[in-house]
Design a protein that fits this description.
five-stranded mixed β-sheet; 12 helices; Nucleotidyltransferase, domain 5; four-stranded mixed β-sheet; alpha/beta
Length: 295
Amino acid sequence: MAEPLYLGIDGGGTGCRCRLETAQGDVLGSGIAGPASLRLGLETSLAAVMQAARGALAEADLDEAQFRRIHAGICLAGIGRKGMQESLAAWRSPFATTRFESDGLGACLGAHAGEDGGIVIVGTGSIGLARLCGQELRIGGYGFPVGDEGSGADLGLAAIRVSLRAHDRREPRTRFTRDVLARFEGDPFEVVAWMDKASATDYATLAPLVLRHADLGDAHARAIMQHGAALIDAMVRTLFERGVPRVALIGGLSTAMEAWLAPDVRRRLSPVKGDAIAGALSLVRPAQAPGWGPS
């Protein structure tokens, strides 16, 4: 019989990436596709998964008949939505075996080479996740605007709020507050009109303004960063308090945010060992195989 192959898929809200590997960890091919978050619907998510998988198969110079050799670990955003696990279980998978988990678990497994540990993701949103003794822990991640503290969206919302107060002269006007309102032609009611349709991603587009002006010393921007960092500090500390042995910071804003964290938190952070695709692969690759697998 042909040697089994292993496919790791990381499907999030901005894109879907995958790698096809042998049991020994040799990379045969990779693929990419559009957003695969289950918040976009089951059909859209799985279409992106299969597009990425076909790309990896093509790069490996294999045809789709080889799907039956593949054991797939598929980590998707939005898997916690009600009824989603049941819908995924009913999917007629073309793979030899298929295991679905959250994209957060994939990132956590990848960050710690399949061992117990936690992550705090700081991107458009934020969340603390960990795996400890076979159990998953979750801190935050309730969604913007009620959650996602310290995230890009949260920083953007804070920027708009302080800029509107500055416009009213309730706070000092600065170059930062003027630059924020300049995105809306200097008109607060343009902000109100925009707000009615704006998503977390839209708010997060203002985060670079906060970072830039904070680096330039603007008092408002620095206060926003300090508050956001304190909220991320609390996530990291809470994971440690709950017995998580290692915590890593990941996500698109992680490097920028790390500079603002408390010294004790920065000292305790661990480096990331692998990516989310490696975590997805660990779900299906035999633990005795070279490299690492699920503990």
